[in-house]
Amino acid sequence: MNRAQKIAWLNLTTITIFIILSGVVAWVLTSNIQIPQPYRELLIVATIAVLMLPMKFARLIFRKKPGQISHDERDELIRKKATLIAYTIFWFFLVAACMTPFFLAGPNGSVPSALTVWILLGGFLILKVSASVTILILYSLGGKENE
Fold first, then answer.
1. Confidence (pTM)
2. Nearest alpha carbon to residue 70 among 138, 5, 12, 140
3. Can you give the residue ranges of every domain in the chain?
C-alpha cells in the first residue's frame, strides 16, 4: 500500500468516526441531559476540530521516505482523476444543497443561517470521501503489482 492509499484510508476512517461521534453528540444534545447552551456549541465545534486533525496532518503522519521514489506518472494521473471526480461530485452537491432550501421555502421564505455551515461541512466531507474512494478504486484497478 502506497502513501496515497494510506492517506485515503485515514480520511475514510476519520470521516466514519466523525459521523458516528456526531450522531452521539446529536443524541446527547437532544436528550434530557442538561448541558448549558455555550457548552453545547463548544461540544459541536470540539468534535469537528478534533476529528478533522488527522485529515489535516495526514501528509505529516505518512511522510515521504528519504531515498525512495514517492510517486510516478501513474500516481500523478490517479491523483488528478480523483481530484476531478471529487470536485465534480462536490459541485453537484453544492448546487443541489443551495437550491433545495429555495425550492422548499419558496422565494419569500427564509432558512436558518446555520444551514450554510452544514452545507459547507457536508460538501467538505463529500469532497474527501469521493476523492479517497476514487483513489482506492483507481489503485485497485491496476492490481497489486502496480503499487
1. 0.77
2. 5
3. 3-63+70-146
